[in-house]
């Protein structure tokens, strides 16, 4: 029974004209900014290695699962600052549909005002798989449709993203275009495309009178201009080690789509966190919610000393 899918659902994914799924909505969007905006490559000033796993709609069979991993770092070339990164994403929406992507990122930095403007691009490949071998249509629904692939269909296409990111010591804003070329796949009985998407983010750091506590409100919006999803987040960090936050998610259909609780901790070079989504939609009410985990490793880079005088003071010997 798990492999039996209603015909309208099958036709949505495998008809003559179909649109590939949207981009993943990560609760830890700040940790997954490399997925959304290539201009963020190297933004921390260190070598960052991050992995993030999301399990959507826990309790459902074949529920969506997403994995994102990235490594990025800054570097200096020809007296200019740059950033570089690599990203890998696996988005398994069901036994019928899965896509994987990998890309290389480059960001150019330019000092502007009190902050730094970053311009980034990403080039890579997307592999889209249609699990036609998992499709069964009952005889009562007409049996096998020749327009639906009877076997696994897999194809690869070139993809590109573009982004801008501006940050000061106190606040940041970013904007990006994903799937700039809207790549298409046209195979026998299988046509799909990845539509262009846009995202915007912004946030700031607010230091309280208690120097151990810092507030980090932020917002993240994904849109295709006819649809949108937005997260509004309030996050607090204590002693630069422990964090807790709440997010309110909305979309074009509901002012309250989900409620998100986030917890995190940093120990030396390692940072980890967990998020729980409680959806308010009719579909989400039938699940145990969504779970998300991330793990980040930061390695401080040894930067060469600058300036005319590089000798040690005798007073410090």
Topology, element by element:
Blueprint lengths: L6 H8 L3 E2 L13 H4 L10 E9 L9 E13 L2 E13 L4 E16 L2 E17 L20 E16 L3 E8 L5 E4 L2 E4 L3 E8 L1 E2 L5 E3 L2 E6 L4 E11 L3 E10 L6 E10 L2 E10 L10 E10 L18
Parallel strand pairs: 1-10
Antiparallel strand pairs: 2-3, 2-19, 3-4, 4-5, 5-6, 6-7, 7-8, 8-11, 9-10, 11-14, 12-13, 13-15, 14-15, 15-16, 16-17, 17-18, 18-19
Q: Can you give a write-up of this model?
A:
This protein is mainly β and 317 residues long. The protein contains 2 helices and 19 strands. It has a 14-stranded antiparallel barrel with strand order 2-3-4-5-6-7-8-11-14-15-16-17-18-19. Residues 1-20 and 306-317 have low confidence and may be disordered.
Brief characterization of the structure:
By secondary structure, this protein is mainly β. Helices cover 4% and strands 54% of the residues.
């Amino acid at each position: 029974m798990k492999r039996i899918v209603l015909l309208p659902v099958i036709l949505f994914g495998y008809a003559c004209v179909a649109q590939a799924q949207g981009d993943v909505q990560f609760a830890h969007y700040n940790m997954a900014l490399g997925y959304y905006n290539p201009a963020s490559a190297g933004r921390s000033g260190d070598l960052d290695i991050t992995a993030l796993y999301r399990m959507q709609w826990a309790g459902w069979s074949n529920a969506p699962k997403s994995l994102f991993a990235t490594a990025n770092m800054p570097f200096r070339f020809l007296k200019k600052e740059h950033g570089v990164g690599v990203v890998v994403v696996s988005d398994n929406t069901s036994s019928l549909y899965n896509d994987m992507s990998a890309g290389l990122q480059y960001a150019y930095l330019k000092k502007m005002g009190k902050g730094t403007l970053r311009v980034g691009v990403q080039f890579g490949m997307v592999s889209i798989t249609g699990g036609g071998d998992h499709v069964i249509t009952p005889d009562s629904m007409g049996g096998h449709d020749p327009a639906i692939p009877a076997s696994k269909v897999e194809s690869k296409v070139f993809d590109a993203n573009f982004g801008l990111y501006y940050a000061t010591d106190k606040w940041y804003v970013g904007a990006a275009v994903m799937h700039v070329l809207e790549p298409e796949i046209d195979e026998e009985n299988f046509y799909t495309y990845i539509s262009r998407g846009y995202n915007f983010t912004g946030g700031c750091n607010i230091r309280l009178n208690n120097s151990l506590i810092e507030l980090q409100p932020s917002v993240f919006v994904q849109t295709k201009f006819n649809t949108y999803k937005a997260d509004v987040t309030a996050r607090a960090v204590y002693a630069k080690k422990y964090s807790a936050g709440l997010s309110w998610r909305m979309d074009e259909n509901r002012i309250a789509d989900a409620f998100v609780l986030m917890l995190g901790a940093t120990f030396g070079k390692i940072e980890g966190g967990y998020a729980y989504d409680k959806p308010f939609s009719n579909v989400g009410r039938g699940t145990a919610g969504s779970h998300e985990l991330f793990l980040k490793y930061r390695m401080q880079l040894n930067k060469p000393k600058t300036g005319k005088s590089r000798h040690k003071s005798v007073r410090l010997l």
